[in-house]
Each structure stands twice: as structure tokens, then as C-alpha cells.
Automatic annotation (TrEMBL), chain A:
GO molecular-function terms, A-Z: 4 iron, 4 sulfur cluster binding; heme binding; metal ion binding; sulfite reductase (NADPH) activity
This protein's UniProt keywords: 4Fe-4S, Heme, Iron, Iron-sulfur, Metal-binding, Oxidoreductase
Domain Nitrite/sulphite reductase 4Fe-4S: from-to ranges: 124-277, 408-546
Keyword RNA-binding: no
EC number, as in UniProt: 1.8.1.2
InterPro entries tied to this protein: NIR_SIR_4Fe-4S, NiRdtase/SiRdtase_haem-b_fer, Nit/Sulf_reduc_fer-like_dom_sf, NO2/SO3_Rdtase_4Fe4S_dom, NO2/SO3_Rdtase_4Fe4S_sf
Domain (Nitrite/Sulfite reductase ferredoxin-like): residue spans on this chain: 57-115, 346-398
Protein name: Sulfite reductase (NADPH) hemoprotein beta-component
Protein's organism: Sphingobium fontiphilum
Automatic annotation (TrEMBL), chain B:
InterPro entries (alphabetical): DUF2849
Protein's name according to its UniProt entry: DUF2849 domain-containing protein
Amino acid sequence: MGDLTMYRYDSYDQAIVDARVEEFRDQTQRRLAGQLTEDQFKPLRLMNGLYLQLHAYMLRVAIPYGTLSAAQMRVLGGIARKYDKGYGHFTTRQNLQYNWIKLSDAPDILAELAKVEMHAIQTSGNCIRNISSDQYAGVDAAEVADPRPWAELLRQWSTFHPEFTYLPRKFKIAVIAADEDRSAMRLHDIGLKLVSRDGVIGAEVYAGGGMGRTPMVAPLIRDFVTEDEIVAYLEACLRVYNRYGRRDNKYKARIKILVHEIGVEEYRRQVEEEFAHMRQQGLNPPVEELARIRAFFAPPAYETGLSDKIDRADPAFALWVDRNVAAHKAAGYAIVNISLKPQGGIPGDASAEQMELVADLADRYSLGEIRVTHAQNLVLPHVRKADLPAVWQALEEAGLAEANLDLITDIIACPGLDYCALANARAIPVAQKIAARFADPQRQRDLGELKLKISGCINACGHHHAGHIGILGVDRKGVENYQLLLGGSGAQDASLGQITGPGFSEDGVVEAIEKVTDIYLEQRQDGERFLDTYRRIGMKPFKEAIYG
Amino acid sequence: MKILTGNDLQSGDVIWWAGDGWSRLVAEAVDVGERGDDLARTEEAALRVVGAYVIDGTLTEEGPRPAHIKDRIRALGPTIRPDLTLKPADADIGKWVI
């Protein structure tokens, strides 16, 4: 994996993961031999990310804070080809899911993952899940610090944390370090935003956010905790939740319910009390450990003297640059977003060949590094501007150059009833129909930034609450029905969408969205995004257009 | 009719009780009447199936049809990947109304 600027396992990390693979191999063999019942085995397989879904076993692989090396991506592609049906699904938690896994293959897959420092540990269960972060971490000029060292520190802290292995419910943490929130930070159980105060790095701590059946935007719990005490403060936050979070009702067991029920002030008071206790126990990791981790993320040796000029002679290339390429902190470099939302495609799906191509492009043009976004896209974080035409050409040939980042066709969609045992309705066909309706690239650009998010059930894996336009699939007497929501945001202006009214059929919701966008085009003022117009004029004009 | 379904323990494939064993084709499913729960327990104990459960269905000209859309999608495969449906070469697949 070369001279990557990402964390590399030490002997402890590797030993832990290797031991876990062998443990699960033994458990699987005992299950297949009848020595374990399904009731006994189910919690064991779930601890290794192996679910039983609609069509087969599903394996959810952790991608720590959405960071992948080319070598890791190549292995993910190889697993898709060898053990699955040739593809995988990138999720809204920056993970990868395989949909067609055989139980008997699962230990071998985990062994292949372990060889490239990957696993599926804590991708299920009532524990601290994969830490999520900003896909532009380390390359955004606006961030106060690189959030990845903290994300990695929290990964290590939370892995097999004995006190937090059986929390009242699952627990999701996001770490960002820029004012622009690309991680839906305030819709996590805990969100950390690194900030600088008088030259000292620390974090704002938000707690009690989440989606699901009771969506909440996390309130600010503490406006500054210094970097050396972040772990102890989180430990205090978790400890209060672990002690008082409800275990009598799984629908009321998330931290957001606790914070809401006892109030922000009381939750904060209890955390501060616990934090004061923690400080005396010296539970913070040694400063040297953070320094050791941070050293892995030292900026790469960027070439100097590179030109910032981009040859925009090809109109299609220029449109892609304008839409999918973002500013990089280093002169002469750019951040490339690879849309996994092609027309007719499945949001977040990538074939083995596409994964391998992205791995090759990362090796050749992006210092061997790739990021996964919560919007189910990929990122090449370090591309020389002079290489953009070659990258675009290669992506174009593989059907990966859709120039639609953050446009109406860049739709987040959960697997829905096509794959998921929990879903009430399909999400992917709705996404495809909307994408087809708005297929005209000029029309998409005219509409501008418009984040559309679809969930196939109330669990909200498709982030429908946070969509400028959100869609929630429900089961109405055995028939799929779709509720429409407007006005949500997962960004720095986080808000929750409001339901427009009665639901629609699959075709009906596409019609309704067209009416909604027509109202926006009629009513928008200069420079307004869809969300801005909605916030200014409110729900009423949209409802009138939809329901007459 | 009552249909017994579940997943093959080892492969995870969706399977249907066909009277003398399991089939991957819902078309071969039989009415298990009131025996579904007993069959499920026996077959799970024999390590042939996991997550077995009984569903309602109707017998149509094309064969047994699960009552709920979730099981119809289980029977066919993901509706957005026709290349992965159970019988992609079968022209009649296209007539299946989810």
C-alpha cells in the first residue's frame, strides 16, 4: 500500500482483526455443523456485519471514515466478482454492502479483507459503528485541521470498547473540521466539529441527533473541548447515555430520545459531572498516541510549480469539471467527485470492474487514495489539474462521468424493498424514474443544487428527512405508497423536512416532484437554491401545486 | 394457500417448501396448510433452512403467488436487476406483476 497518507495497522490492529476472522470461521463451522442454533449464531454473525436480507446474506464492510486505498478498493472489487454477483453497494454511512453472500464464504471474505487492513466489525449491533467524516478531509483549504486523525483515534477507542459493546441502541459518530458540513454531522448520535479557539484546536460537541422514526437535529452540548480531552468527553457522553438510555423500548432507545426527554441542560449537566470524574481517572489517550496517528496523515509530497490552468476545450469535459471537481488546498491539484448515479443506474452501486478502474485511477492519478461519501459517491482526493482530462476520459468510458453532483439526479436511495428485509417500499425504482424524468442535463443545472433523498422505510437509511426533497416509502395495505417531504438539509444549515400531505403512487410522486420544482422555478429569486426558496415562501404554494 | 419459505442456511438463497424438499422456484411451492410451523421447526433443526416462515398466497394460473409484495420480490429477485432475476431467460418473467 506504498507511501499512503492514511492510517496503517500496527501489529495490535492486525492481530485483533486476524483473531476475529479465525473466531468467526470457527463460529461459522459450528453453525453449519449444527453445534450452534440460529438464535445463538445470529448475534455472532451480526457482530461481524453479516445480515440475512431478502435474497441472501448481506455483508456490510466498514470503510473507516470513508477512506480507502487503491489496494483496498481493488480487493473490494475482487470480492464482488469472486463471492458476490459482480457488484457492491456504497451506503450512506460510507460503507460497502455485498448483497449475495454465502454463509460458508463469509470467513474467507473476512480473511481477504483482513489482508488489506479491513473488516466488518461493528457494522451492526448496539455498539459504536463506523466513524464517519468529511470526504474532503485533509484536502479542503477551509478546514481548521485534518479530522481523520481524530476519526482514527475514535475508531481505535470504540473498537471492542468493553463498556460500549451493548449500548441501549446503535451509536453513530461523525467528525468534521470545516464550516461546510458534508457529513450530516448534526444528524448523528454525536457530532464533533473541530474548531480553533485562540490558536488551540478543540471540538464543538453535538449530541442527540439522528433520523429514523423520530428525527432530530443534534443540539450543541459543549462549545469547546480541547483536543487532548475529546476522548474523555465522549466517554462521559456515552456513559450517561449507557446508564440512562431506555432499554425497554427499542424505538425510544437512541440517545436523541434521552437528550430530548431529560432536556439538553440536564443531559449536559450529567455529562459535565461525569467528565469531571473522568478527568481524575486519566482516561485520555497519551498525547504521543495522537501524534503517532497524526503522522500517518501528514500531507503528501505534492508537486510544486504546477499550473492551475485547465483546458476546457471539450464542452462535456468542462461541464463535468464545473460540477464534479472541487477546489484542493494544494496549488495545481483538484478533488474529483465520481458520481455513482448514472442515468438508469442504481444509486451507490459499483461493479467489480468499476471498483477496479477507480483503484487504477487512484494509483495513477490520486496518490493511491479514494474516499467514499455519505451521498453514495466516490472521490479521488489528490488529482493534478493537468490530469483531469485523462481521468474524465477514463471515467466516461466506464459510465462514471455523470456530471450531476448535488443536482436532482444525484439521488441518495437506500436499497429499499428490492434488497432489504426491513423495507416497506422500493426506493431504487423511484430514484430511477425521477432521474429519467429530469434526465436533461441543462434542466438539472437550471434547477441547481437540489438534494433528493429516498428511504424505503421509516428507518431512514436514505436520509429522507434531510433531503431538500425527501421521499419516504410506506406500506399502505400491501401497496407501496410514497410520502413527500420538503425542506430538509443535512448540511451546516441542518433542518428536517416536513411532509406535504397524503402520499402518492410511484408514478404519482414523480409527478408531484415535477410540480414542486415548477413552483421553485416560478418563485425563486436571484441566487436562491430550492431549499432557500422553500424556506422563504413556505410549504403552502407547493402544497397547492401538488394537491390543487 | 399457505406457503412455507425461508433461506438456505449455507447459501442464503430464497427457498420454498415443495412437498418433499425445498425448491428455489416459488412455482413449485405447495400448500402446507396447518403444517407450516412444524415443518419450519423440523427443517431448521435439520440445518436445511434458516428464518423459515409461513405466508399467505394464492394459486394462480401461473402457479402460487405470495400475497405480499415483499415475498413476491423475494420470489423473483430485485426488480431493478432483471439480469439477476431467478429465470432471466424466461419470457414469462416479464408478465410477473409485482
